[in-house]
Amino acid sequence: MNIILFEQLQEISHETYLIPRTDHRSKHIIRILKLVPGDTFSMGLVNGYSGRAVVLSAESGDVRFSWRPEHPCSGSYDVTLLVGAVRPICMKRILREAASLGIREIIVTGTDLSEASYLRASIWNDEKYRGYLIDGAQQAAVTYIPELTLSRRLDDALDEARGDALVLDPRLDAVRLSEAAASSNSATLAVGSERGWSDRERSLFAQHGWKPVSLGTRILRTETACAAGTAVLLSAMNLV
């Protein structure tokens, strides 16, 4: 991780904080980073300020450090990812990469061809998904994590689109994603689940005015299409 993020801090005195030995972050600081008193590390609060922390002590695995907020949250790009539900192991990678790339919001939706059980997985019920978003933000050394919304049906999710509405589908007569997004200031990119979109859903996209776009003729895995599509979209919008 290139920054260590916290949902909240355990303050033990003014501007002095504690990471208990049972916290994986204390182990990372001591065993991986090998920091000792006087060393510094980059840290921040989720969706909040970041700054440099100074290790004060690391006795018995408990890490005490001082920290002052320095830099406000850098925010995100005005891009939403609408993605069909996939297996949790694949969704974990999608969440990490989406957070790393800096998108504003992720909408995960059930589709006609995806398994209904994917939306009942413990990753959603227990809000474990936040850990994967935080992992992605820590990789990118930012504090912002995307908002996340679950939708049971694509029919309901379509109304959540922001800006230009673009749907990836190699079966449609589509323009290149890089060309379609060149003049966008805000966009939503839809990526299907592993079996793609049904004909009913393709008609639904057309009825709602979504523009079909393509990354080429190859059929990609959902997680690959999400990462590649988002990267192309951000580049075409001159955001990266």
Q: What does the secondary structure layout of this molecule look like, with pairings?
A:
Layout: E1 4-6, E2 10-13, E3 16-19, H1 24-32, E4 40-45, E5 50-57, E6 63-67, E7 77-84, H2 88-101, E8 103-109, H3 122-125, H4 129-140, E9 147-151, H5 154-157, E10 164-168, E11 175-176, H6 177-180, E12 187-191, H7 199-207, E13 211-214, H8 222-236
Parallel strand pairs: 1-4, 7-8, 7-12, 8-9, 10-12, 10-13, 11-13
Antiparallel strand pairs: 2-3, 3-6, 4-5, 5-6
Molecular structure report:
By secondary structure, the protein is an alpha/beta fold. Helix content is 30%, strand content 28%. It contains eight helices and 13 strands. The protein has a seven-stranded parallel sheet with strand order 9-8-7-12-10-13-11. The protein has a six-stranded mixed sheet with strand order 1-4-5-6-3-2. A hairpin with a 4-residue loop joins β4 (40-45) and β5.
